[in-house]
Design brief:
340 residues, Creatine Amidinohydrolase, Chain A, domain 1, Creatine Amidinohydrolase, 2 domains, 18 strands, 23% strand, elongated, binds manganese (II) ion
Length: 340
């Protein structure tokens, strides 16, 4: 990934080294591995990945990999290091104190924003992996509705997750299957609740080679009323209108406003942001509140409306912008009617 770009930044900023401690998505980003415990030390001209003997020792282009064993602090000890880059959002106080002892003359600077910026614009290789994760996510949904036999929320989540795992993926996050009024809680915790007549929210995604997909689809169990169909179409039109507004250098907040205006008086039931960037993390930059759309941004568009103790709805796609918008989660958005 963009290791050399980051190293150029270190040179320019006079940062002697950046010390990342696991768990840190930036370690996954640069090494494309998820070791149980590791350090990644990036210097302007070289990088070293330290893993324990509990993990397989990976071979990574331009990064030397070594085991770290008892006394590693002494081996690294260096009183010539003056500036250390850290990920302030994740480095624990415990490790910061350790680093201060290892590098007694060093002061710390936060490099988390630079890392987020580098990661927000995907390389072709990254986009390919996300596209594959999205494809498998979409297939899982199609399989589910073509052969629906589930009785509980857990059954549904298990079906989707098994499909994705059978295709060689991990799950991006625990699947949300929310039947009837559970759907009014955007992050409902999937339970052994029996499926009930009404809308069901399915929010899930595959993780392919460390890259995530995020998709939400609605299904209807039983037969929807005219009013329920209208609600669904209102939300779908809001999502499509927001996608329509995607263009180079557009503010993400403009998309958010577009989606909200389409919801009219129901806007007040749309209680979260319209979307988020996605990559090695399910939620990463770009941020809708502050950023503008740039080439190779990968992000979600997911308006939702939630009626407490009644039902909730959300429709979400993962997309890539490369001058043109490409929806990567291609599962159909006509509301499927299922029998229970
Ligand atoms: Mn999402």
């Amino acid at each position: 990934m963009k290791l050399s770009e980051f190293q150029k930044y270190l040179t320019k900023q006079n940062i002697n080294l950046t010390f990342l401690t696991s768990p840190d998505p930036n370690i996954t980003y640069f090494t494309q591995t998820k070791p149980s415990h590791a350090f990644l030390i990036i210097k302007p001209k070289e990088a070293e990945f330290l893993v324990t003997k509990l993990d397989a020792k990976p071979r990574i282009k331009n990064i030397a990999t070594n085991y770290f064993t008892t006394g590693w602090e002494k081996k690294l000890s260096n009183n010539k290091i003056k500036t250390i880059g850290i990920n302030k959002e994740l480095l624990s106080v415990h490790y910061q104190e350790k680093l201060q002892k290892i590098y007694p003359k060093a002061k710390f600077v936060d490099v988390s924003n630079q890392l987020k910026l580098l990661r927000s614009q995907k390389t072709p290789e990254e986009t390919k992996k996300i596209a594959k994760a999205c494809k498998i996510t979409s297939e899982a949904f199609n399989e589910l509705i073509n052969n629906f036999k589930c009785k509980t929320e857990q059954d549904v989540a298990f079906f989707l997750e098994k499909y994705m795992k059978d295709k060689g993926c991990e799950i991006a996050f625990p699947t949300i299957a929310a039947t009837s009024k559970n759907g009014a809680i955007p992050h409902h915790v999937t339970s052994n609740q029996k499926l009930r007549k009404g809308f069901m929210v399915l929010d899930f995604g595959a993780c392919y080679k460390n890259y995530n997909a995020d998709m939400t689809r609605m299904v209807y169990l039983g037969k929807p009323s005219k009013e329920e169909k209208e609600f669904y179409n209102l939300l779908l039109n809001s999502q499509l209108a927001a996608i329509e507004e995607i263009k180079d250098k557009q503010k993400f907040m403009h998309l958010d406003k577009t989606a909200r205006s389409k919801l009219g008086k129901y806007n007040k039931y749309f209680v979260h942001s319209l979307g988020h960037g996605i990559g090695v993390e399910v939620h990463e930059d770009p941020k809708f509140k502050e950023h503008i759309i740039n080439q190779n941004h990968v992000f979600t568009i997911e308006p939702g409306i939630y009626f407490k103790n009644k039902f909730g709805m959300r429709i979400e796609d993962t997309l890539v912008f490369k001058g043109k918008t490409k929806i990567l989660t291609t599962a159909p958005k006509e509301l499927p009617l299922l029998r229970i």
